[in-house]
């Protein structure tokens, strides 16, 4: 008596349509027949890799092991009305032919990449699944370094950024609770092991810095800067200083003062120092914006730590720096009051009016009236140091 697969195989010979044949092959798990169809499916762009933390049932075998940190590689097939997921390891395991698996992986991924220039490589749609498939089945492929570079670039460009790139590492550490600059130093080391010159790694980072939309957290800015070669001179400083307004904005966006200061200190020591030292319009604009939000203590802390004079050596408070910080804040209060009023932050405007001697009495009274009319709380973060 014929078993189910033999019956399906006999029926397959009576089918003429490609889609009908493909559906039957998948349903009956006729691996040898699917292998015959793969070149045509790949050519049509109907195949891609994905990863999941459970093994796919089609072509699953108890001998199949995860391909990367508990993740399994799926071969996703989308051709006309056919939408199927195949356990790639299980399918390849039926044949025990490494050359076949290697060729399938290379054919699928080669459709994505323009190998002719770095920009073409970096902007290819390489996914973590593509990278894991190459490492598992085609580790000696001469195009593997480009796949690695593209995968890390896409990870760093995305919203997860730091964490996603870190997960791509072959020997991912067990703990994720480490500072971003330390987390991505291993990324740079891994790319160097792939024989990428530091100049290529630096170019990758500089491309990311030019795309401001990718720099959505100060943590990510720090991590990207850490991949760039430290001590490489003017280009490193220029890269950070070109994003000075954005870095300031991201710095003040953080609610955690310790993390905020730690990140900025690292940046100040690694290329942002000159931009912090000079009095720039970008700095004044950001400080005024924060004062107009009532964050007077946050601004004062920033000035004490990064902008004003300090004693040589040690972390003791320099009274000269404290006095300088007070002078800077007082010089910005009038603009902050005007900004808060313009933005209808009436409670903050009224509070600022009380500590700004330059404001006329009529304007001070009007600010209080507006705050009362609009039922706004008249308060600042902390301001007694200006007294």
Describe the 3D structure:
This protein is mostly helical and 387 residues long. The chain is built from 20 helices and 3 strands. Strand 2 and strand 3 (82-87) form a beta hairpin. Helix 14 packs parallel to helix 16 (281-291). The chain starts with a helix and ends in a 14-residue tail after the last helix. The mean pLDDT is 81.
What percent of residues adopt helix (DSSP H or I)?
Answer: 55-70%
The averaged pLDDT comes out at 81
- Describe the strand arrangement of the main beta sheet, using strand numbers: 1-2-3
Please count the helical segments: 20
Which shape, going by the Cα principal axes?
elongated
What's the N-to-C terminus distance? 98 Å
Q: The biggest beta sheet, please?
A: 3 strands, antiparallel
Low-confidence runs: none
* Total beta strands: 3
Round the Cα radius of gyration to an integer and report it.
30 Å
Listing every helix as H and every strand as E from the N terminus to the C terminus, the arrangement reads HHHEEEHHHHHHHHHHHHHHHHH
Report the β-strand fraction as a percent range.
Answer: 5-15%
């Amino acid at each position: 008596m014929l078993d189910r697969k033999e019956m399906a195989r006999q029926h397959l010979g009576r089918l003429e349509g490609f889609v009908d044949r493909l559906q039957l092959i998948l349903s009956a798990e006729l691996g040898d027949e699917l292998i015959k169809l793969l070149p045509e499916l790949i050519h049509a762009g109907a195949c891609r890799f994905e990863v999941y933390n459970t093994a796919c049932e089609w072509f699953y075998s108890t001998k199949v092991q995860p391909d990367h940190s508990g993740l399994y590689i799926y071969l996703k097939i989308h051709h006309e009305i056919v939408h199927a997921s195949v356990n790639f390891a299980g399918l390849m395991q039926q044949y025990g032919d490494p050359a076949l698996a290697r060729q399938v992986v290379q054919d699928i991924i080669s459709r994505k990449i323009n190998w002719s220039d770095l920009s073409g490589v970096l902007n290819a749609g390489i996914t973590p699944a593509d990278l894991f498939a190459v490492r598992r089945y085609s580790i000696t492929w001469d195009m593997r370094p480009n796949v690695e570079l593209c995968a890390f670039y896409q990870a760093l460009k995305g919203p997860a950024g730091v964490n996603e790139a870190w997960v791509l590492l072959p020997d991912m550490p067990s703990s994720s609770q480490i500072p971003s600059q330390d987390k991505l130093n291993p990324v740079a080391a891994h790319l160097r092991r792939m024989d990428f010159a530091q100049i290529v790694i630096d170019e990758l980072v500089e491309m990311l810095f030019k795309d401001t939309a990718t720099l959505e957290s100060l943590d990510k800015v720090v991590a990207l800067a850490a991949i760039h070669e430290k001590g490489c001179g003017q280009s490193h400083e220029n890269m950070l200083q070109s994003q000075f307004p954005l870095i300031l904005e991201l710095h003040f966006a953080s609610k955690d003062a310790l993390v905020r200061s730690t990140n900025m200190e690292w940046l100040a020591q690694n290329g942002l120092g000159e931009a912090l030292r000079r009095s720039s319009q970008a700095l004044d604009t950001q400080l005024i914006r924060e004062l107009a939000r009532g964050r007077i203590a946050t601004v004062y802390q920033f000035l004490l730590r990064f902008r004003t004079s300090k004693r040589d050596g040690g972390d003791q408070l320099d009274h000269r720096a404290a006095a300088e910080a007070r002078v800077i804040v007082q010089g910005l209060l009038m603009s902050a009051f005007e900004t808060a009023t313009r933005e209808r932050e009436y409670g903050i405007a009224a509070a600022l009016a009380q500590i700004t001697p330059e404001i006329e009495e009529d304007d001070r009274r009007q600010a209080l009236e507006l705050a009362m009319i609009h039922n706004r709380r008249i308060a600042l973060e902390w301001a007694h140091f200006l007294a």
